[in-house]
Structure prediction request, 461 residues.
Amino acid sequence: MHRDHLLESGHALVGGDIVGRVATKKPATKPVELVVAREVMEQVGAIVLGGGRGTRLYPLTALRAKPAVPLLGRYRLVDVPLSLCIHSDIKRIMVLTQFNSASLHRHINNSYQFDHFSTGFVEILAAEQTMESGDWYQGTADAVRKQIRHIRDLNASHYLILSGDHLYSMDYRTLMRTHLDHDADITVATVPVGPQAARGFGIMKVYNSGRIREFVEKPATPEQLTPLATSPSLFARFGIKTEHRYLASMGIYMIRAEVLETILRERPDWNDFGKHVIPYSLHERRVFVHPFDGFWEDIGTVRSYYEVHMRMVSQDVPFRMFDQDRLFYTHPRLLPGSRFQDARIKDSIVCEGCRIRRATIQHSVIGIRSLIRENVRIDHSVVMGADFLEDRDSDARVPMGIGEGSMISGAIIDKNARIGKNVVIRGSQRLADCDYDGYAVRDGIVVVMKNAVIPDGMRIE
Prediction:
């Protein structure tokens, strides 16, 4: 009989062995989330994967790596996993990069500097040619394999594998608690999803013990997806209240160091965690789930990037940013407070260093150093701001920021964009995907590119 069936029937697990039948207890309605000691977490090395091309986020990734894409006006996507690591007592972190990595390198070097009395660090590992390999990363697991000689220097007991393009808040100490309680080799963080979303993720079917019995990466047909449904009683056992039926991988893995190194060494054809390492390890390793029921968003497309910003300025904000103990860290800037002159702002986020004069802004995110002039209307848009403060008396033909009389809705305005006077930019589902000089359309959203110049009077709608 399979060991998980024995555990479910009430047998005890001691030192990894089934030793006999014990009285079963009804699980609590909500499991107690215990964390582990700091000394244990200090032995964990974090690996943040940031090497992909980010083609689905183009044109936001035209000049930068995906983890370096600005987030909520003042952060970068990579700030999320790095901040959560620090809050979880994980302070030895390596970030693997490959494409358009210059701005990501600059941001990390400027933002994450631990003091001389700390053993913490954030180190960047760029793709490199070695005597063993001269190829680009062939997948998430292959990226770790190609950097394993550097990663091994962490001397870690466990590796925490993270993605650099998700928005969520998790205490990784609870993930480690689940991992240790199950004596697991690999623990996969999971989130409940519906059938439509399930087709874009790795979906798991699990035993009542939480051990994964089947893992299918991006099931494409109902025949593949339906058998993977998780019963409501099992969700209740995990303490999760949800109407969804499927458990999706969050792309977050806690793995024993010796197990990961053995897999990467002995299975050179396993190039991806989701496609190879997790599903092919189920029968050889103890692979468990760590259920998570908080807010989590995979920011992989222009549409998801736009929508998560719109949710963050809605009346029912899904993600708490004003928590003193869980703040996101980023590059510290010496910017003046934003200045508003006869402006009307509703349900929006406005970051520091902005100058807004006689403009109307609603349901939008306005990034650092934004300059918005008279009679501008901005609605349901993301304005990223600028990398520098331009003098008001600049002799540029089209000054930095948004010119007077312009109207912007359903759009993303990338950094350092210069939008002239009386410009109309209006995204809608009627617009077909396209690429033009200075802007592009993706899924009905108009994206003005970084450093682009949009001349006076231009209409994009």
